């Protein structure tokens, strides 16, 4: 048992500040345990969103020591002990209160993606290799940490122009389903805004499910978009980049 | 006095958005009902995401000899013949279609070499029967249903918590709810209400259950007059993590044993040989939980108070492919590489077999206009649920209840909401926020969990149960003075916990009273003072309902069916051999 310091952001849409707490931590304790114990003992009104505490639902996304993480999957022992543990809400989404943000925008985006549409008389014969490819994308627990870290959404606030990494993953799972019949490339290139991603790969780095978002979802989708709209490919790749604002090339 | 609130009217109001609620809402919307889905968490976060091993359906893809009759027999044997026979029959017959339908909606499952859905072995299932994807089948199920539902014109109210059902005479006519983000009140008028709120594992200290599993549907349904059945049967899953302290109770999927995992005690003994030589690790959950509990009690437990679960004899690649989230869970939360070291596991409160008594065909409860599906209903699973049968249960009966509620709504009058009931429901919430009380909801919850854990656990006896009732009455008395420790309305966790604790206290009392009445041991209900099966009890369910402010606990004959009798008799005879 050791005593650790926690700096937790408290406030609402009108502003806030960090509050400091000290807590006896037990072996194996994760950041969410610490936050809930602080809630039970000294700060009963501390708002935090969580469900499973097993890294399966993706509810407890926050920024721990400045890094987007699931609080339930971050052992306190793994964080540097020479300073306090800082816990802040995801910065990309509007604050509701304390560590809770309004992530409803993501649900609106999801509705704009045309659902799985198989051939009416499809024979349901699928190989394991297809399943393995889609399974990576289907692992997504919608914690929205990738949306939080994506600089197009976070720094440039271009939510109206880019669906974000989570929904590139969703589109990839649909586009790579062997029995799906729709072509979502126009949506990807247009409202989806896939061109705005300049493959810095920050999204995959924070994914708690270790989905290789950029390499396995976004880049293959970019290639499909390029194939469709800008053939032959080499010219297309160049002209595609020219259409982007400078900072995204 | 008029209370400020927003008002929405629907044909069908579904409360709860796990697998059952989503499937029910899709079914109701497909029938043309104007449908709303109210859930206390964000959409897609419900406890269904935690289901790991698979969904049971007699597709016969891996074992061609499998058929619905065998799935029915397995379910009845697992439930120790207390199941609602018609529900077990419909479930076994319809699960294959519900699973195929899921695939047609975009669900992705592991395959056989001939490109069909693969199926894995699980406790109590005669054949390899569980359709799965790795060990995250629940997530696949909920995401598939979620992505289907959002294109059905269903209105979704996220982080909106129903606190009371409203009635017009005998029938339900609406629900009172509040928005978590703002604390503002919402009144729903509805021609039919469908409860799909899941279970109540949070009544126990060691549980695999999510934050939201607080038996809300059981409590709201009971208050509205619904009958609850089989409430004494609470499933303790044999394998939860026992270490480190932060993750005690966290589920270790049965798929570990389905893929060949072996249980050993601290003496390196494969102890299941002494409890069920025939099925070994893949015995039913009630048997394996009691076995582990007994090993630990008798001094053969591991240093952290569990037993070993070992997959180190399997190829590391197989473990990582078939059990990826288990590999990750132990690596990240316990620092254990399960391909090299055994896991330490012990029983954890997991599932309510009991719930609102419903009509098998339509999901109708005994209250007109009130329907139910999934874990908040009872009957399907009897005295013990087989692994894999909950995901199939919620698909089969989610669809049926959604259609049942829509059919009822089509001929029901427009909902009439009583202002007095609304005022009373609002007053309750306001008092919990700013009334004169001083009882702390977090402390009360912790005391409730300790009571249930120590006195209404895997093994019970009269003395412990009576003592539990006394503790619960003392807690209920204090609960009348509950108040949130802080007074803001916006996203106030203490306020929310006040309401949850009331539901959990009520349902804990129901469980305890039912457990006291059943003087025998059967399935998940083990009485130290009545350790044997009792044939007469084997033909009766316990039903609990409200009479004024009193709680009525009574015996009812099991609903059997002549046309299924030979199947059941065959199984009984086979097990007796």
Describe the 3D structure:
The complex is a heterodimer of chains A (249) and B (577). Chain A is an alpha+beta fold and 249 residues long. Chain A folds into two domains: 2-100, Ubiquitin-like (UB roll); 104-248, Orthogonal Bundle (Fumarate Reductase Iron-sulfur Protein, Chain B, domain 2). Chain A has helices spanning 31-41, 104-111, 128-138, 145-149, 151-154, 165-175, 185-189, 202-206, 213-229, 233-242; strands at 2-12, 15-25, 61-64, 67-70, 85-88, 95-97, 100-101. In chain A, a hairpin with a 2-residue loop joins strand 1 (2-12) and strand 2. In chain A, helix 3 runs antiparallel to helix 6 and helix 6 crosses helix 9 (213-229). Chain B has 577 residues and is α/β, with parallel strands linked by helices. Chain B folds into three domains: 7-233 and 353-411, FAD/NAD(P)-binding domain, CATH 3.50.50.60; 236-347, Succinate dehydrogenase/fumarate reductase flavoprotein, catalytic domain (Flavocytochrome C3, Chain A, domain 1, Alpha-Beta Complex); 430-542, Fumarate reductase/succinate dehydrogenase flavoprotein-like, C-terminal domain (Methane Monooxygenase Hydroxylase, Chain G, domain 1, Up-down Bundle). Chain B is 36% helix and 19% strand. Chain B has 15 helices and 21 strands. Chain B has helices at residues 19-30, 68-78, 85-104, 137-149, 216-223, 255-258, 285-297, 316-322, 324-334, 389-411, 419-434, 441-455, 462-479, 493-517, 565-576, and strands at residues 6-15, 35-39, 55-56, 119-120, 130-131, 155-158, 160-168, 171-179, 185-195, 228-229, 234-241, 262-264, 307-310, 343-352, 355-357, 370-372, 377-378, 459-460, 526-527, 540-547, 550-557. In chain B, the strands form five sheets. In chain B, strands 1, 2, 6, 7, 8, 9 and 16 form a seven-stranded mixed sheet that branches. In chain B, helix 1 packs parallel to helix 10, helix 5 packs across helix 14 and helix 12 packs antiparallel against helix 13 (462-479). Chains A and B meet through helix 1, helix 2 and helix 3 of A and helix 3, helix 4 and helix 9 of B.
């Amino acid at each position: 048992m050791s005593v650790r310091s926690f700096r937790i952001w408290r406030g609402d849409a009108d502003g806030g500040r960090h509050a400091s707490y000290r807590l006896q931590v037990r072996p194996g304790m994760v950041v969410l345990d610490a936050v809930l114990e602080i809630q039970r003992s000294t700060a009963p009104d501390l708002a935090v969103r969580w469900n499973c505490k097993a890294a399966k639902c993706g509810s407890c996304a926050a920024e721990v020591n400045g890094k987007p993480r699931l609080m339930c999957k971050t052992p306190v022992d793994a964080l540097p002990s020479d300073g306090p543990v800082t816990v802040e809400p995801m910065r990309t989404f509007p604050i509701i209160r304390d560590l809770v943000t309004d992530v409803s925008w993501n649900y609106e985006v999801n509705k704009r993606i045309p659902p799985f549409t198989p051939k009416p008389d499809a024979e349901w014969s699928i190989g394991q290799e297809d399943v393995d490819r889609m399974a990576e994308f289907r692992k997504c627990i919608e914690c929205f940490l990738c949306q939080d870290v994506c600089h197009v959404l976070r720094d440039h606030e271009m939510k109206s122009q880019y669906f974000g990494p989570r929904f590139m993953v969703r589109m990839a799972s649909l586009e790579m389903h062997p029995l799906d019949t729709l072509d979502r490339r126009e949506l990807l290139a247009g409202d989806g805004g896939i061109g705005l991603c300049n493959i810095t790969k920050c999204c995959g780095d924070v994914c708690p499910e270790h989905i290789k978002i950029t390499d396995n979802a976004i880049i293959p989708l970019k290639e499909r978009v390029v194939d469709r709209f800008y053939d032959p490919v080499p010219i297309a790749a160049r002209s595609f980049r020219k259409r982007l604002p400078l900072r995204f090339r | 006095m008029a209370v400020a609130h927003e008002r929405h009217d629907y044909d069908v109001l579904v409360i709860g958005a796990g697998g059952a609620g989503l499937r029910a809402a899709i079914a109701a919307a497909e029938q043309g009902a104007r449908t709303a889905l109210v859930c206390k968490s964000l959409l897609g976060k419900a406890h269904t995401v935690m289901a790991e091993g698979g969904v049971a359906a007699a597709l016969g893809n891996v074992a061609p000899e499998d058929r619905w009759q065998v799935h029915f027999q397995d379910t009845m044997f697992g439930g120790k013949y207390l199941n609602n026979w018609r529900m077990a029959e419909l479930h076994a017959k319809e699960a294959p279609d519900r699973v195929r339908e899921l695939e047609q909606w975009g669900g992705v499952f592991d395959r056989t070499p001939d490109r069909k859905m693969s199926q894995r072995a699980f406790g109590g299932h005669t054949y390899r029967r569980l359709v799965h994807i790795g060990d995250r089948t629940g997530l696949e199920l909920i995401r598939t249903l979620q992505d289907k539902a959002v294109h059905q014109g269903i209105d979704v109210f996220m982080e909106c918590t129903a606190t009371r059902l409203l009635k017009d005479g005998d029938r339900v006519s609406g629900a009172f709810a509040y928005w978590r983000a703002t604390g503002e009140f919402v009144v729903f008028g509805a021609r039919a209400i469908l409860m799909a709120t899941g279970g109540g594992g949070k009544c126990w200290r060691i549980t695999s259950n999510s934050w939201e599993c607080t038996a809300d549907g059981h409590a709201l349904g009971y208050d509205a007059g619904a009958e609850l059945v089989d409430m004494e049967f609470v499933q303790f899953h044999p394998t939860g993590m026992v270490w480190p302290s932060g993750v005690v109770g966290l589920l270790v999927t049965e798929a570990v044993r389905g893929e060949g995992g072996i249980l050993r005690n601290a003496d390196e003994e494969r102890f299941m040989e002494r409890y069920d030589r025939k099925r070994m690790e893949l015995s039913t959950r009630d048997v394996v939980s009691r076995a582990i509990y007994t090993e630990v009690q008798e001094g053969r437990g591991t240093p952290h108070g569990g037993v070993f679960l070992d997959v180190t004899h399997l190829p590391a690649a197989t473990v990582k492919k078939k059990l990826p989230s288990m590999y990750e869970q132990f690596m990240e939360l316990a620092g254990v590489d399960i391909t090299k070291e055994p896991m330490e596991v012990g029983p954890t409160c997991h599932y309510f077999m009991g719930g609102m008594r419903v009509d098998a065909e339509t999901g109708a409860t005994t209250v007109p206009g009130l329907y139910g599906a999934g874990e908040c209903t009872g009957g399907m699973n009897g005295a013990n649920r087989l692994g894999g049968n909950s995901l199939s249960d919620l698909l089969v009966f989610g669809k049926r209840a959604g259609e049942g509620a829509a059919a009822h709504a089509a001929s029901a009058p427009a909902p009439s909401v009583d202002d007095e009931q609304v005022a009373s429901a609002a007053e309750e919430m306001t008092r919990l926020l700013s009334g004169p009380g001083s009882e702390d909801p977090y402390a009360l919850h912790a005391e409730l969990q300790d009571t249930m854990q120590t006195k209404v656990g895997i093994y019970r006896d009269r003395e412990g149960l009576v003592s539990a009732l006394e503790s619960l009455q003392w807690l209920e008395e204090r609960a009348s003075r509950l108040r949130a420790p802080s007074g803001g309305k916006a996203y106030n966790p203490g306020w929310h916990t006040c309401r949850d604790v009331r539901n959990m206290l009520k349902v804990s009392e129901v469980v305890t009273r039912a457990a006291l009445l059943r003087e025998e041991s059967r399935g998940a209900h083990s009485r130290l003072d009545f350790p044997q099966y009792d044939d007469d009890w084997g033909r009766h369910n316990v039903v609990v309902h409200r009479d004024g402010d009193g709680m009525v606990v009574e015996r009812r004959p099991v609903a059997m069916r002549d046309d299924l009798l030979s199947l059941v008799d065959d199984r009984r005879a086979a097990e007796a051999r």
